[in-house]
Amino acid sequence: MAQQEQITRWRLILGSETQKSFEGMGGAALSAEDYLMDGALSAIYGGPGESFGGSGGPGGAGGGRNASSPHISRWLGDLRALFDPETVAVVQNDAIERKGLKQLLFEPELLEGLEPDLNLASTLLMLKDQIPKKSKESARKFIRKIVEEINKMLENDVRRAVTAALNKRAHSPLPSASAIDFPYTIRRNLRNYNAELKTIVPERVWFFDRSSRMNHWHIILDIDQSGSMGQSIIYSSVMACVLASLAAVRTSVVAFDTKVMDLTPLCADPVDLLFGFQMGGGTDIAGSIAYCQSLVESPSNTLFFLISDLEEGGNRAALLRRLEELKGGGATVIVLLAIADGGKPYYDAQTASRIAAMDIPCFACAPDRLPELLERALKGQSLEDFAKQKGK
Asked: More exposed terminus of the chain, fewer Cβ within 10 Å: N or C?
């Protein structure tokens, strides 16, 4: 890297107040693009006087202390033009944390310009009840961007995992009126309602495959919806909706804090499912497991996932007893620990240790390895080596 370029980078890192010092060391004046970059970064990382009000010229982004929407919108545009998407996502998050710019999440034109990011999506879902009516559709579109990215990563592999484990087709490709799965077809085509015709115009019709109608596996996802679970909720919801689209398995989705909510009817659309979660509050894990026990009809064909940080606000002894009852009754029980910050696990170590001692797999799993985990579990294979590879 040329010396002049190094000097320019250090000047941008250290901020506008060091401009005269760098000029005294022989540093050349910043270019127009450098000043634009300097203003975009100073708005977030500058001193108390910096804000979104300036023009991006020498001296940083000066101006008033209240950042108006047009200024933020222009700042977002500059940011996207100057930096790669990963850097944009980092700076966006810092804007929320450092400047308290919740209006980034409440203005339609700003939401449309935000780079998809899991942390922002988690924040948006937590604040969803505060979002003004004018921004709700833009908020859903932003969440859908995240969902589509995760879906690309998981959907095909999840389908392959279930097919490999059960050797059954999800739906028959052979059309037969008597075999139409009407409830599922209607649920999957609700978005295709035609107001003029006053009916649903299906893009696709699903048919039962008689070879896959027997011995269904029942997969139950019991998901902690406390405030710390944002990323885990997003990944779990996308996976739940993929599973719900497969006829070879039956899927139930349960969310809990101190109360229990059955969100299974929302599984036709992962965005609807995500907006069904009420993030925040305490936890009663034992109570949620008790509800899930009532859903079990054939224990030997039941795969139960508890997805939680295990910070039990209720009765921990009851939590352990409920898990032991599920396992003892013949269900396959797996505990997936909460993840954040790119897949780092966080959880109550003491409770996790007690669960692992009951010979119940208890570990964090990187999102891209969920299909492999699912296949192993459905095949009845040991998860001990898998858990060791991924780490607790």
From this structure: N
Point out the least confidently predicted range of 23-27, 38-42, 225-229, 235-239: 23-27
Identify any residues that bridge with 71 across adjacent strands, giving them in sequence order.
Answer: none
Going by DSSP bridges, is the β-strand pair 249-256/217-224 parallel, antiparallel, or unpaired?
A: parallel
Beta strands in the chain (DSSP E): 193-194, 199-200, 217-224, 249-256, 260-262, 302-308, 332-337, 339-340, 344-345, 362-363
Is the pLDDT assigned to residue 26 strictly greater than 80?
A: no
Tell me, rounded to whole angstroms, the distance of Cα 138 from its chain centroid: 17
Three-state secondary structure call for residue 170: coil
Q: What is the mean pLDDT of residues 158-178?
A: 66
Task: Kindly report the pTM of this predicted structure.
Answer: 0.68
List residues bridging with 305 in a β-sheet.
221, 334
Take residue 42 and report the two structure tokens written for it: 């100073």
Distance CA 227, CA 126 (A): 7
What is the DSSP-derived secondary structure letter of residue 253?
Answer: E
What share of the chain in percent tops pLDDT 70?
75
Residue entry with tokens 């396992």? 327
CB-count exposure of residue 66 (10 Å: 0-12, 13-18, 19+): exposed
Q: Does residue 65 come out as left (phi exceeding 0), alpha (psi in the -120 to 50 range) or beta?
A: alpha
Instruction: Fill in the DSSP letter of residue 178.
Output: G
Give 247-279 pLDDT, tens digit per residue.
889 999 999 988 999 999 999 999 999 999 987
Pairing label, strands 249-256, 260-262: antiparallel
Which amino acid belongs to residue 358?
A: M
Q: Rounded CA gap, 339 and 213, in Å?
A: 35
